[in-house]
């Protein structure tokens, strides 16, 4: 479900429509749009709150955008721009060019709605903030909104596992690279960490026995990372237990062609910081890390 719903959600970060919507309401630059739009459900929060909840960005990157963003647009304005931009982008990608959507979107929304209804957001600030927002009436926007609740629920749980393992945001990225799932240039540039910080994170992981001097994972490091992913999956399973195996499978089958359409559109770059699988990849080919 992560490989499916994350792709639909991630359109909001790469498609031109949301970025244009943020510019229209006065936000300046990509990162101001990103940090403001993802945090706006929590209100006009401080940079410290974004640092804590997003977890994996270099603080200087956050502080360049927050709280200044709230001087240009209110959280409600940002949320409207985000939802409208995501809806227009997905409609363009999934539609037939005349605004007609594929069949089954309404049914998919109903199924995800069952999964999300009453979702336990204890200790999950981003999930709680998004889950508290009303579900849009328009089907594609509803689909995107519910996918977003699910992804932030999983992401908050993943952060909890990293905190429990005493792995900070930069170290989480270093572990990703050491696993071979992505490259240092992709993650370091996208998350704002400087070379001195990245190198210090590498050394800390070597000192803990999780990386070797060659930059790869040790057996202990591979075991640790596998355990964190397993625990993340366990904490993310509540919505799918509620929906049940049969309906979850039906939902996955409905989502699959829409996810393929997103991939085919080129909306999400193959070298992306979320380590989303490329078009045609199976879930076994990558190990996601939402940090």
Task: Record keyword descriptors for this entry.
single chain; 291 residues; mainly alpha; 2 domains; 16 helices; 65% helix; globular; disordered C terminus
Number of domains: 2
Tell me the major beta sheet: none
Oligomer: single chain
- Assign a percent range to the helix content: 55-70%
Order of helices and strands: HHHHHHHHHHHHHHHH
Q: State the low-pLDDT regions, or none.
A: 280-291
Rg, please?
19 Å
Q: What is the overall pLDDT average?
A: 92
Structural features, described:
This protein is 65% helix and 0% strand. The chain has helices at 2-14, 16-24, 30-39, 47-54, 59-63, 69-72, 75-94, 105-116, 125-131, 139-164, 169-179, 184-191, 195-207, 219-235, 238-243, 245-265. The longest helix has 26 residues, at 139-164.
How do the strands and helices of this protein lay out in sequence?
Elements: H1 2-14, H2 16-24, H3 30-39, H4 47-54, H5 59-63, H6 69-72, H7 75-94, H8 105-116, H9 125-131, H10 139-164, H11 169-179, H12 184-191, H13 195-207, H14 219-235, H15 238-243, H16 245-265
